[in-house]
Design goal:
526 residues, alpha/beta, eight-stranded mixed β-barrel, 18 helices, 19 strands
Length: 526
Amino acid sequence: MSDRPIVLIADDDRSAGAFFEAALQREGFNTVLAANGREVLARLEEQACDILLLDLHMPVMDGLETLLAIRASGRTQMLPVIMLTGAGDEVDRIRGLENGADDYLQKPVGVAELAARVRAQIRGRRALATELERARVERRRLADALEGLRGDLPLLTIASTLVERLPDSLGVDGAAILYFGAGGVTTISSSGVLRRRFAPNQTVHERRGRELVERAAEGPWLETGSGSVDRRSRALDVAYVPFRLGPSADPLGLLVYAQEPVADVEPLSQRLSELIDATDFIVVVLRPAVERADTANTSIDRIQGLIARHEFAMHLQPIVRLDGGELVAVEALTRFADGASPETVFGEASTYGLGAALERAAVAAAIEAAAYLPPEVALSVNLAADVLRNDEALRHLLAATERPLIVELTEHERIDDYAGVRAALESLGPGVKLAIDDAGSGFASLRHIFALHPDYVKFDIEWVRGIDTDPVRRALVSGLVYFGNETGCELIAEGIETDAELAALRELGIQLGQGYLLGRPQLGQA
């Protein structure tokens, strides 16, 4: 050992104490002597010792009393203790081990065994100290990762930030938070190598979700070197750690950690207990934010229930040719049973990671509601660009629909990956067209139009209202008409409510329109 460890020898037999002292000093230890329990406690107050050899039968304060006092003190409770007993002291040995002794030696003691047992206890305690220090460092790093996450932030924001920080803090390659809700298992947030397996804001496949819930009820588990979801994915070691909040015994969800197997990196199979501790620490630290987010959990459950129970109806509003009134398409509009604003409900669903699930349910309902229409009439559905880009199940649903479809993206939504949106649209086939809704009135102004080359551009009621008397509106729409003619893009005027507006739009060359004058939204017929 690098330093000479200090052995405290407690024995009222002076000759036995002298024997132990000489033997251990020859083996490379420093020694301190004590004749009874009180002296033991006094010596430990004076200096730190690495291990205690404790005779059970001493005057003033015997070995068992001394052992209880040592384990009751925060300063000495981790001190390794080896009992010294006689051949007939089996009952005392059992009592000593039950009260905190680490090992025992039966007198007379051989020097080689004495030294070996002392070294083994010191080694084990130093290894434990090293592990405790490592755990302390890990918790400090976790605390640093959690620093600055204000409890008043939305839980989704906290979760997203946390999973981005966890890989560096824990030395893993990815992390994810999964939530068990009424509508299935949802990925609240994910990072690193887990983003492909658990896409953020997506619902896990139903069968896989059931497996996760069932396994979580049994406790943490590890999947080793497995799980490539397709040929492009690398094999991963993945640890799944359930977490709970409140009195319920059922897990609320999972914290998932992943690591790519690398030869010179400690595998997750040897770190599962550390990740369990980390999860407990994370949950304790985040508990105030989670408790404040009870209303959020209520919202999640409500939205998931709304989807599962189909508590909405699809209303279809005609899109017609302004010359002749021919029905060209219908726009699907979601109406909720409780009268809540569609914009509010879809926004709330997106906030809690359920936007894709709700939009998928709405599209399926719209397709069913339009089934009675002639097959050549297109169905126009409103989608968020990120859902279109990331939700494979939704794309399969759209691509499998025989009716012509128009996907409407709003200008009010930010799009960071135009190439990804274009690729997603192209994957749907020629039967699906693109419309940009609310053109010129939203986040990106006309940028979506320039970047995505839509088949249709819809301008809303703010452009249409009073166009028969407003030269500025007429000039702006004239410019759009020129743009449409040059690019082959058809324009759709929304919110047509008067005959004068209809006449003005016809005069300007607008061919398609919708509004209360042309047809109010009507409940679809499955």
